[in-house]
């Protein structure tokens, strides 16, 4: 449902400032206020506790010094840090595992496997806490955590082939998985690769009906549900290439783009999953915490499924530092990965500096998570900065990416209604829409610093800002309603003042929304398929952040 509340308040504001009223009201995007405007998801539910609560503070402390972790002594602290986390797992209730100021050396994985554990330092800058990882994950024992992925890579001969670089090797299992700080449900299986390892899905209740964008669903026999339950809603595509779920994700006109066969070859796996919380039950009317991604009816059946997850898990206030290392090529990473955040509902990562990582933060199987104020830096070419894949309602805000990256801001496979917000890419960044049924995601109030390919003759300078990844069997780049809002493109070279720069998205998806694309050069958007475009070359000053605007409408603030 498009939010249209509080326009009376806006009118009063404009009346109070008549000199500014004409310019201000002219920049209120039609898509927010026009009853005939196309559908726009409500992105305000992204983040911890669906965007309405601050990150919690945990007062019960386990001090790593009590387990022999001494910063700045040049000795390895892995055993002491693991012992402190073991004590946290044995404790009752929420606990904060606290590191002191200075450098700790880590050569083992730190596992967080229960709810209510926060790993915290003293800050990410001078006088703060630094975790230094001198060796990559490829030299660590993960206890078999990625064995299924390793088997998958071998069975399907997933290789990185670059003839000009004499490179022909299996993909690294660390390319998009694993981290030195790793959250997971004990015994869980958050990333699925091989069908023989699929586990039975526990159906909790069938859903009879519900409407996209609404929060009330009809559940006959709702007695199997309870207020506070955190479950997933599953939609399966059992109707093949032209089934109604494919139409819901990609629309009915797919003449301009292919849809990969992974969308229908695994009908027993849900193609769309929405993790949510039961807020209220009145007879067979059930209110969930966030709006439905898709309709539910006889043509589009769905059900509540059990979801194993952790909650109230946080990582905050520290620097994760890796040594300078060569770049061995895309998908050939050694495993200098900071955090692998998996299997969490209501969690957070905040106030981190990550230096010289292969990937700073990788995610999987999350919902209602905030990732705030992460700085990625260093000279090493990274695969990802802060990555969001296979997640729902994740908010990434204040992400500053100074280092070179292959995929800077990535909404990856099966990510839904997640948000990159007020973040900046400094070194040839990309807004990567990575295929795999990702849809209804938002790039909001972003800034990118770019050096386009210079013009040669008549063609203008070009920059492939939306340089996407993803396998062909998961194409197109994204589903319906992915949104780019107030995107500032700052050209730092290769185009003179007044010279047009083409911003390219050659492999996008249907019904994208692009509102407020602007920069320090005239910009021409080349986006395939053609998106809904509004306020071209204009900063949307009446709603500079769609996420914030929608949150204000919802909360009444």
UniProtKB/TrEMBL annotation:
Residues 1-21 form the signal peptide. Gene3D superfamilies: Single-stranded right-handed beta-helix, Pectin lyase-like (2.160.20.10). It comes from the Bacteria. Pfam families: Pect-lyase_RHGA_epim. Coiled coil: none annotated. Residues 62-124 form the Rhamnogalacturonase A/B/Epimerase-like pectate lyase domain. Keywords: Signal. This is Rhamnogalacturonase A/B/Epimerase-like pectate lyase domain-containing protein. It comes from Aurantiacibacter zhengii.
